[in-house]
Structure formats: structure tokens, C-alpha cells
Amino acid sequence: MTHLPLLKKLVVICIAMFAFAFALVPLYDVFCDVTGLNGKPSLEQAKLSTLVTENREVSVSFTTHAQSGAPFVVKSKEYSVAVKPGAMREVMFSAKNNSNLDKVMQAVPSVSPGKAAKYLHKIACFCFDQQPLKAGEELEFKLLFYVDTELPSDVEELTLSYTVFDISEQLVASNN
Fold first, then answer.
1. Mean pLDDT of the chain
2. Are β-strands 89-97 and 58-66 bridged in parallel, bridged antiparallel, or unpaired?
3. Are residues 82 and 144 in contact, defined by beta-carbon separation less than 8 angstroms?
4. Mind spelling out the 3-state secondary structure of 43-58?
5. Is the pLDDT of residue 48 over 80?
6. Read out DSSP for 62-112?
7. Could you read off the pLDDT of 116-171 as tens digits, one per residue?
8. Is the separation of the CB atoms in 76 and 89 below 8 Å?
């Protein structure tokens, strides 16, 4: 019975560790919202821009990469574009399913620097929906976006990055 105080301390520590791990995700989200470091752009269609800043240009670059094991190759037709804040810009992307099976892909965007994420507005984006691709099929997708006129002046360039996931198995599992 001399170990009872130690056992109580260990149980309390374990409970505290579990509670901290459980609260970590919401705490991280709050931290990212406060600091602007999350880099998560909205996944909802934005409203059209009505104001254009003619005397400023921002460089927007595009990168894509597939999740490990995903059979997709996704590329933008242009590596980088110059955009006047508020002006609409269209960039085409190609996506190819390199497997011999029909697949469904989902693109998840992120923006760098993170504080610029809330200033990048997408009107049309292949990331809004799941994209079915037949075996060996190649499709083109349009990204229609603008950079908000309120983008901080110290941000002169930003990168829109897409990670592409193969969600075919998750869709089959959810339909069963």
C-alpha cells in the first residue's frame, strides 16, 4: 500500500495527458486562426470581385503533388502568373489517372504564406468537388480566382499548392 500515492499521481498524469491530446486539435486550430499560420483557403465558392488595384501586381505560383501511392499526375499549365488584386485570373490544370482502374481524386489546397490564405478567393476550382477519372484518362480543369485587394502590402508573392488524394476506396467503403 505504500505505492498508492504514486499510483494516484500516475493515474492523474495519464488522464491529464489524454485530455491534452484530445484538446490539441482544437487548440492548434485556435492558434492558427490567431496567428494566421494555417494556410487553409476556403473551400467554398467566393463572390465575384468588383474592385481592382491597377497599380499593384502579386505573383501567384502553383504546385501540385499526389499523396503517396495516388496514381494521379496533376499539373498547372502555367507555373506562375502575375495578378492585379481584385482582377479575375484563369489557370488551367491537367489531371491524369495513370492506373488501369477508374479512380476518384480529391485535391486539397493550401496557401503559403499562411496569412495570405484568406485573401485568395476561388470562383471555380477542381478542389470544390471529387473528380472521377477513368483508367488512363486525362482531363483539364479550370481554376478561376482573384487575390483580394486587402492583401497586406508586404505579401508580393504567394503559392497555391494542391495535394491530390485517391479517395476511391473511401467512397466504396462509405457506400457499403
1. 84
2. unpaired
3. no
4. CCCCCCCCCCCCCCCE
5. no
6. EEEEEPTT--EEEEES-SEEEE-TT--EEEEEEEEE-SSS-EEEEEEEEEE
7. 888 899 989 898 889 999 999 999 999 999 999 999 999 999 999 999 999 888 76
8. no
CA distance 46 to 31: 25
Question: In what helix (H) or strand (E) does residue 29 lie, and over which residues does it extend?
Answer: helix 4-35
How far is residue 51's CA from residue 87's CA, in Å, rounded to a whole number? Answer: 8
Q: End-to-end alpha-carbon separation of the chain, Å? A: 53
The angle at the Cα of 112, spanning 107 to 114, to the nearest 5 degrees, equals 105
The CA distance from 51 to 104, in Å, is: 37
Q: What pTM was estimated for this model as a whole? A: 0.72
Percent of the chain with pLDDT over 70: 82
Buried b (16+ CB within 10 A) or exposed e, 89-124: bebebebebebeeebbbbbebbbeebbbbbbbbbbe
Instruction: Give whichever of 8-12, 29-33, 100-104, 170-174 has the largest mean pLDDT.
Output: 100-104
Closest by CA to 66, choosing from 113, 44, 25, 98, is 98
Amino acid letter at 27? Answer: L
SS3 state at 20: helix
